[in-house]
Specification:
39 strands; UDP-3-O-acylglucosamine N-acyltransferase; 5 helices; lipid a biosynthesis; transferase; flat; twelve-stranded mixed β-sheet; lipid metabolism; UDP N-Acetylglucosamine Acyltransferase, domain 1; 342 residues; EC 2.3.1.191
């Protein structure tokens, strides 16, 4: 079946309005505004790229609904959220062109005889190790060199990419994606200093990744000291993130690259941590809070607000302080000049 979409089919797929263009003209791929050809679908999701939009050679561009004109010869589809609409087009081409799921267990996979799965409904690649008592749901794909620990339970339609490690007894819901190199269930960083020596405290809890969670490459999520470290339903965790023992991440969070959450902290639902944000231990962040890049959280934060700076404060306050700091060299010059005059 062809992956091509006519203008009419594309508008229906993305729930958009055709602003201009021939309904029967078809498009076979997707591209950025500056690289697109007349066979491509592109989008304008940020006004910073408006100059590229004016010069694009794309066949069709998905634009904000309020935009009514564009480059000559380029078809336009209006959408409430052009970036999301473009994502639907990307998904269409990905599904049409990518390799289909094919069940089967590679002969070089190592699977304990007590592990439970239906070989006709899962895919296990070469080098994967599945230990005693593990349970693998139908439709799940275990990538090359993945290690699934003892008594791990993985739900339906999950995808563990190459070199992922899931340690013993951890639980993964349905449609969970774990990108290459991530480690789920490593020991929490728990030590007590006794007579001048750091003594390791056993970490006997687990990690739970609820349904539709995605974990980025080389991210690490520590098992609880006891109980559970939980990543809530629908949350998306970027690459190179560290989440410590007994953390409770709410539903539909976004946690962006190089962020860190220390032990026993909690985030509510729909919380966003921008890149390199950090949350100290035993802190609560309320629903729909947004932490700007490199924000440092040391105390509980109310939900529904934007924060920035170290320590975290309302974002507008942080921005005003930063603006004032940029003026400091000139102010110092003026103070010195006044001191000389006095």
């Amino acid at each position: 079946m062809s992956a091509e979409l006519t203008l009419s089919e594309l508008a229906q797929l993305v729930d958009g309005d055709i602003i201009r263009g021939e309904l029967s003209v078809s498009f076979g791929s997707i591209a950025s505004l500056d690289e697109a050809t007349p066979d491509d679908i592109s989008f304008l999701g940020n006004k910073k790229y408006f100059s590229q939009f004016l010069e694009t050679k794309a066949g069709v561009v998905i634009v904000p609904k309020e935009l009514k004109d564009g480059p000559e010869g380029v078809a336009l589809i209006g959408a409430d959220n052009p970036s999301y609409a473009f994502g639907l087009a990307v998904t269409h081409f990905t599904k049409a062109l990518s390799r289909r799921f094919e069940a089967g267990i590679h002969p070089k996979a190592i699977i304990d005889e007590s592990a439970k799965m239906d070989p006709a409904k899962v895919r296990v690649h070469a080098g994967a190790v599945i230990m005693a008592g593990a349970v693998i749901g139908d439709g799940t794909e275990i990538g090359p060199n993945v290690v699934v620990g003892e008594q791990v339970v993985i739900g339906r339609d999950c995808h563990l990419h190459a070199n992922v490690s899931i340690r013993e007894r951890c639980l993964l819901g349905e449609r969970v994606i774990v990108q290459p190199g991530a480690v789920i269930g490593s020991d929490g960083f728990g030590f007590e200093t006794v007579k001048g020596r750091h003594v390791k405290i056993d970490q006997i809890g687990i990690v739970v990744l609820e349904d539709d969670v995605e974990i980025g490459a080389n991210t690490t999520i520590d098992r609880a000291r006891f109980g559970r470290t939980v990543i809530g339903e629908g949350s998306k965790v970027d690459n190179l993130v560290q989440i410590a023992h007994n953390v409770q991440v709410g539903k539909h969070n976004f946690i962006v690259s190089q962020s860190g959450i220390a032990g026993s902290s909690r985030t509510g639902d729909y919380v966003i941590l921008a890149a390199q944000a950090g949350i100290a231990g035993h802190v609560k962040v309320g629903d729909q809070a947004m932490l700007a890049g490199r924000c440092g959280v040391a105390t509980d934060l109310e939900g529904g607000r934007k924060y920035g700076g170290i320590p975290a404060q309302p974002l507008i306050t942080h921005q005003r302080q930063q603006a004032s700091l940029r003026k400091l060299p000139e102010l110092l010059k003026r103070v010195r000049a006044l001191e000389k005059e006095s």
